[in-house]
Amino acid sequence: MTTYQISTELITNKKEKTPADQLGFGQVFTDHMFVMDYVEGQGWVNPTITAYAPIELSPAAMVFHYGQAVFEGLKAYLTEDGEVQLFRPDRNFKRLNDSNKRLCIPAIDEELALNALKELIRVDRDWVPSAPGTSLYIRPFIIATEPYLGVNPAKNYKFMIILSPVGSYYKEGINPVKILVEQHYVRAVVGGTGEAKTAGNYASSLKGSELAAQQGYSQTLWLDGKENKYVEEVGSMNIFFKIDGKVITPALNGSILPGITRDSMIQVLKSKNIPVEERAIAFEEVLTAAKNGTLEEVFGTGTAAVISPVGELKWLDEIIAINDGQIGEVTQMLYDTLLGIQYGTLEDPFGWTIKL
Ligand SMILES: *Cc1c(COP(=O)(O)O)cnc(C)c1O
């Protein structure tokens, strides 16, 4: 057991809450935040809950130049009994440390991080929205703060957690999205940083999203960076295909982000005796299945939307319609199951939820 003391500096004049129907995603922030600094020779010091406010950094802070930045995304949900619960938060802090390792950032104490998060949410508890489908989005992140233009791992870092009440992702019902298969750009390569949750992966994915949007598609389907052949992810979500009764998702090969929603979906499928395979899947296999009528469902998974059904794929000049542009049966079941567990309306046989 580590010993640590989180100091708390509470504010006195609280901000006004945004009405639930005006909450978008990631635009409103709560009254407090968590901050902890890393100082070479001392380790992580001064864990503090303090007023949500701008931070001051040197223009030479290394994060601005060489991109040592990692982050996480998870949510807190208000249950019908008025309790606040988190969904598998231990996995997020474990993954944050995996990302740290890849970017030469010193590891954080995962237990301290989880306790700090719980304490922060307790302080800002009245910011957890209660309207159906709303939640409190949680953004832990670490940046290199040392002012230095030399290229090596920084000697100083900041670990912060900020909270943002977010609106319902599917206000107008779950509408399947149209996805463009990207032919030129790639999101990540094996040996690169694809399996780390790092800012740079997002910067390099923007071009593909922009090109997709120009053609009227809402996201990019990413193929592998070496052979441009195997399916990797959709936008910033993991991807699943249901072909001939079987659910298939790309195996974690080093360039795919190991999603916690992805892992949860696999476990739910197994518990319902629906066959699920983690393996390499060539886009050609998807195309063949579409042509012979066995491509039944396609969906992306991630914390923000939980599940995003795909209604259409465009590959070169070919347009593949999936399930007549409707959400599939298994997609709907997975959505209902996960949301039910997260909001506490369904039993949690997996032990995934943690009350504050
Ligand atoms: C965060 C992320 C996901 C989804 O991970 P979850 O833990 O399910 O939210 C998938 N792909 C990428 C590239 C991501 O950054």
From TrEMBL:
Cofactor(s) for this UniProt protein: pyridoxal 5'-phosphate
EC number per UniProt: 2.6.1.42
UniProt-listed Pfam families: Aminotran_4
UniProt xrefs under InterPro entries: Aminotrans_IV, Aminotrans_IV_CS, Aminotransferase-like, B_amino_transII, BCAT-like_C, BCAT-like_N, BCAT_family
Record-linked NCBIfam families: ilvE_II (TIGR01123), PRK13357.1 (NF009897)
Reaction equations catalysed: L-leucine + 2-oxoglutarate = 4-methyl-2-oxopentanoate + L-glutamate; L-isoleucine + 2-oxoglutarate = (S)-3-methyl-2-oxopentanoate + L-glutamate; L-valine + 2-oxoglutarate = 3-methyl-2-oxobutanoate + L-glutamate
Protein name: Branched-chain-amino-acid aminotransferase
Family: Belongs to the class-IV pyridoxal-phosphate-dependent aminotransferase family.
Record-linked PANTHER family: BRANCHED-CHAIN-AMINO-ACID AMINOTRANSFERASE (PTHR11825:SF44), SUBGROUP IIII AMINOTRANSFERASE (PTHR11825)
Organism whose genome encodes this protein: Solibacillus palustris
Pathway: Amino-acid biosynthesis; L-leucine biosynthesis; L-leucine from 3-methyl-2-oxobutanoate: step 4/4; Amino-acid biosynthesis; L-isoleucine biosynthesis; L-isoleucine from 2-oxobutanoate: step 4/4; Amino-acid biosynthesis; L-valine biosynthesis; L-valine from pyruvate: step 4/4
GO molecular function: branched-chain-amino-acid transaminase activity
Enzyme class name: transferase
Keywords: Amino-acid biosynthesis, Aminotransferase, Branched-chain amino acid biosynthesis, Pyridoxal phosphate, Transferase
